Amino acid sequence: MKKARRNTAKGEADPQPVVGLRIIGGSLRGRKLEYSGDFRTRPMKDRVREAVFNLLGYAVKGSRVIDLFAGTGAMAIEAISRGAVSAICIERHYPTTKLIERTAAELGIAGQVKAVFGDAFLWSRSYEAIDDAPLTVFCSPPYDFFVDRNAEMLELIQRWIERCPAQSEIVVEADERFDFSSLPCPESWDVREYAPAFVGILDVKSGP
Predict the structure, then answer these.
(1) Are strands 168-175 and 189-194 parallel, antiparallel or unpaired?
(2) CA–CA gap between residue 58 and residue 51 (Å, rounded)
(3) Can you point out the beta strands (E) in 75-180?
(4) Which of 139, 155, 156, 164 is most exposed, with the fewest beta carbons within 10 Å of its own?
(5) Computed over its alpha carbons, how large is the radius of gyration of the chain?
(6) What pLDDT score was predicted for residue 163?
């Protein structure tokens, strides 16, 4: 595995004051994202999201996005802003799936963003690609999943590596408790630290 590099850039939700979230780049740059402040969604900080998309670069353009633990949908919507053609957001908290739908509608991208209320592990088992377009897969679950459900997480990531068409990108976010060297293809991950998060990116060179 590539050595991790430090980077200094890093129930129902009751109505609460919106916490500042915005789109960092692309056609929707500067537009706000709705976020109630519910602790269950834990959106990636703006500066970390910006760093991740800088690393992904042009690979996002023309890809189809799978956001497995979507939360606010910030990663998927940022990808749409930067040229992704579509996004599927999987979220197990129903009010948050409605929030994603509302945000997409407000931004005028409802036709490109599909919010799915469901379990990412179960949904992934039945996923079928509609074409050969590269995927951008975001896997940013609750950090405890890498401890309490470690085997399931590794199986989930392996499943997506095997299913991704060539030139796809897989992004995994965890904290210091997760050993990125336990991932499939450990030497191929580019792992960065944005304390307290660690982000690993895999470029899938060849498809299944």
Answers:
(1) unpaired
(2) 13
(3) 86-91, 113-117, 135-139, 168-175
(4) 155
(5) 16
(6) 94
Which residue(s) pair with 171 in the sheet? 138, 201
Predicted TM-score (pTM) of this structure: 0.88
| Residue type at 118 in one-letter notation | G
Q: How far is it, in rounded angstroms, from Cα 74 to Cα 76?
A: 6
Helix residue spans in 131-179 (DSSP H): 145-148, 150-163
Contact 195, 206 (CB under 8 A): no
pLDDT tens digit string along 117-168? 999 999 999 999 889 999 999 999 999 999 999 999 999 999 999 999 999 9
Q: What's the CATH superfamily of 5-204?
A: Vaccinia Virus protein VP39 (3.40.50.150)
Residues 6+ apart with CB under 8 A from 15: 36
Domain coordinates of the chain in residue numbers?
5-204
CA angle 35, 37, 41 (to 5 degrees): 75
